[in-house]
C-alpha cells in the first residue's frame, strides 16, 4: 500500500492515527509510583513503584525511589537527582535488604551498583519510622491485628 492510498483510506487522518497509536502504547511502560514520605530530609521524597512488586518465595521485591530537591554528588562522586533501590522485603519477619541501586540524573542512569549476591543472608529489620512503615504497608498490606 502506498502512502497516497494510506492517506486516502484514513481520509488524511494518518498523522492523528499514528499519534493515537503512540499514546496508546505509552501506559504499557508506565510505572505507578506512590509517595510514602521523606528520607533524611523533609525535601527528599520517597516513592514506591507498585507496578514493580514481585513475589520470590517469602520475599516481595519492590523498587523504592528517593528523589532529591536538587542534584547532589554522592559518596562515589556521582551526580544524581534520584536513585532507585531494588529491595527485597520479608513481610512475615519485617526485614529487608537493598539488592541493587541505580542512580539517575535528569531521567538518565548515571551509576549502578552490582546486584548483591546471596542477598537473603543480609536482611536487616525495617526501621520503625513513618516512611518505612508506609513502605511496609504498601508492599505487605496492613499489619495483623494485635492479640488481646
User: CATH H-level name of the largest domain... which superfamily?
Assistant: Surface-adhesin protein E
Average of the residue pLDDT scores = 83
Termini separation: 74 Å
Helix count, DSSP H or I runs of 4 or more residues: 3
* Computed Rg: 21 Å
Strand content: over 45%
Please give the CATH architecture of the largest domain.
Beta Barrel
CATH topology-level name of the largest domain? Lipocalin
Q: How would you portray this structure in words?
A:
By secondary structure, this protein is of the alpha+beta class. It has two domains: 1-30, no CATH class; 32-140, Lipocalin (Beta Barrel), CATH 2.40.128.710. It has helices at residues 3-9, 14-25, 130-140, and strands spanning 33-39, 41-56, 59-73, 79-90, 95-105, 108-112, 124-125. Residues 1-29 have low confidence and may be disordered.
Short summary:
This protein is of the alpha+beta class and 148 residues long. The protein has helices at 3-9, 14-25, 130-140, and strands at residues 33-39, 41-56, 59-73, 79-90, 95-105, 108-112, 124-125.
Question: What topology does this entry show?
Answer:
Layout: H1 3-9, H2 14-25, E1 33-39, E2 41-56, E3 59-73, E4 79-90, E5 95-105, E6 108-112, E7 124-125, H3 130-140
Antiparallel strand pairs: 1-2, 2-3, 3-4, 4-5, 5-6, 5-7
Question: What characteristics describe this protein?
Answer:
148 residues, Lipocalin, 7-stranded antiparallel β-sheet, 3 helices, globular
Amino acid at each position: 500500500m502506498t502512502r497516497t492510498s494510506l492517506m486516502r483510506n484514513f481520509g488524511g487522518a494518518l498523522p492523528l492515527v499514528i499519534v493515537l497509536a503512540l499514546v496508546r502504547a505509552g501506559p504499557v511502560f508506565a510505572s505507578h509510583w506512590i509517595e510514602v514520605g521523606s528520607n533524611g530530609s523533609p525535601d527528599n521524597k520517597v516513592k514506591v513503584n507498585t507496578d514493580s512488586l514481585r513475589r520470590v518465595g517469602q520475599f516481595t521485591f519492590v523498587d523504592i525511589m528517593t528523589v532529591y530537591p536538587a542534584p547532589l554528588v554522592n559518596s562515589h562522586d556521582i551526580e544524581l537527582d534520584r536513585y532507585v533501590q531494588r529491595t527485597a522485603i520479608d513481610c512475615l519477619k519485617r526485614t529487608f535488604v537493598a539488592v541493587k541501586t541505580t542512580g539517575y540524573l535528569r531521567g538518565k542512569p548515571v551509576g549502578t551498583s552490582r546486584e548483591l549476591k546471596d542477598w537473603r543472608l543480609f536482611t536487616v529489620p525495617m526501621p520503625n519510622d513513618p516512611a518505612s512503615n508506609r513502605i511496609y504497608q504498601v508492599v505487605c498490606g496492613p499489619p495483623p491485628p494485635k492479640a488481646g
